[in-house]
Specification:
single chain; 385 residues; 9-stranded mixed sheet; 5-stranded parallel sheet; globular; binds 1,4-dihydronicotinamide adenine dinucleotide
Length: 385
């Protein structure tokens, strides 16, 4: 099977997330990295793309140049990843979708709910795929949690507890660090800092695993480091459309916590606990039963988990391989279209524009609720009410 052509906007040298995307696309041999506008600095972007093996004529200085350069090529990009800072996602994603490219956009997909709705409409109108990189949903055992919930192992889902609490922005002396500062600057970060940056990963996981969508929420935001106007800590309670109750804590000042994404799901028949820092083990406890450790790669897991697992059990699989599963799903759908066949239905698990939209509605609802002393607020996007 011919490899798909893959291009990237953002993710330049030294960026946080660029390497994970490059690893994720490389793992299964389904993509060739053929084009990129990798850096806000044109020369640095061109040089780095070539260093990574991109041909000089496809190592672009700017995403508009890339769009024009790729648009009419017979071997143009099949998929473009957008991994630039948040405020640029909407414009770049919109432009590539409208030019007929499939896109995988980093989260948050947009800055406003209106922009989110526009992306959903453009993807539907153009028929292009628009994935959103909630990459942690690619983990094998996260997909197994989802399968266990769907087949009823947990019974009725009562409570979901999601956390994404790290301590990397706790030092007030870091206020002027450019990589920290923008995240708390409303002009660059938008209406929310920590909830929009990390909280939405946890919220997406709660929906992905339970199969339920968030309908309403109440939130309490705190900006604890002096000088910050946007929150660095948030507690959010939410209700879901299948009857589950959700609790979410997100923080960037939780000193000592490293990554800090965890998910716990409690149902009438049992409970599940999973942590991103130990992604190859899942704790399952049937009601009145003992704690059991489910290992990634062991026999008897769901087809969803098996499909997302590569390395023999006992060897660690980590975050870039979770991203690889998102890329693998997208490759299957894109390849199927090229071949004029139906895609494997199992590939439909990748997060989509509608998930990016739901997150943005939740962010704006959380901000409004926090301003209104925690008033319960509708968290659904208007177009989905
Ligand atoms: P970063 O600041 O480390 O890197 C951003 C990169 O984009 C830099 O190389 C910069 O030169 C480049 N860039 C900026 N403007 C550009 C433009 N107009 N055209 C081309 N390149 C441009 O940022 P980081 O942490 O890598 O975040 C990028 C995005 O990825 C953000 O939206 C962030 O929320 C998201 N992210 C997602 C994660 C996930 O788990 N899904 C984890 C970390 C970040």
């Amino acid at each position: 099977m011919a490899r798909l052509n893959w291009g990237m906007v953002g993710g330049g040298k030294g960026s946080q997330i660029g390497p994970a995307h490059r690893l994720g696309t490389a793992v299964d041999g389904k993509y060739s990295f053929v084009a990129g506008a990798l850096d806000v600095n044109a020369d640095a972007g061109r040089a780095f793309a070539q260093e990574l093996g991109v041909a000089p004529d496809r190592a672009y200085g700017d995403w508009r140049e890339m769009l024009e350069g790729e648009r009419n090529r017979s071997d143009r990009c099949d998929l473009v990843t957008v991994a630039t800072p948040n405020a640029t996602h909407f414009e770049i994603t919109k432009a590539f979708l409208e030019a007929g490219f499939h896109v995988l956009c980093e989260k948050p997909m947009t800055m406003t709910v209106e922009e989110g709705e526009e992306i959903v409409k453009i993807a539907a109108k153009t028929g292009q795929l628009c994935g959103v990189n909630y990459g942690y949903s690619g983990y094998s055992l996260v997909r197994h949690m989802r399968a266990m919930v769907a087949r009823g192992d947990l019974g009725d889902i009562r409570v979901v507890v999601a956390e994404f609490a790290h301590g990397h922005h706790a030092n007030a002396a870091d206020m002027d660090n450019p990589r920290v500062r923008w995240r708390y600057d409303p002009a660059q970060a938008g209406v929310s800092a920590q909830f929009a940056d990390c909280g939405i990963h946890a919220l997406h996981m709660a929906s992905f695993v339970t199969g339920q969508e968030v309908t309403a929420l109440t939130s309490d935001f705190a900006a604890t480091v002096p000088g910050r106007v946007l929150e660095d800590d948030a507690m959010v309670s939410f209700r879901m459309d299948g009857g589950a109750v959700g609790r979410l804590w997100t923080s960037s000042i939780a000193v000592g916590r490293m990554h800090g994404l965890t998910l716990q799901v409690f149902g009438s028949k049992g409970g599940l606990r999973w942590a991103q820092e130990q992604p190859n083990q899942l704790i399952w406890t049937p009601v009145s039963g003992r704690n059991q450790i489910i290992e990634r790669g062991e026999a008897g897991l769901s087809p969803e988990a098996d499909r997302a697992s590569r390395v023999t059990m006992g060897h660690a699989e980590g975050m870039p391989l979770a991203f690889a599963n998102i890329y693998s799903d997208l490759a299957e759908v894109i390849q199927a279209r090229k071949e004029g066949r139906a895609p494997d239905p199992a590939a439909d698990l990748y997060p989509k524009a509608v998930d990016g939209l739901r997150s943005m509605a939740a962010v704006h609802a959380a901000v409004a609720s926090a301003k209104a002393d925690g008033a319960w607020t509708d968290a659904r996007p208007p177009m989905l009410r």
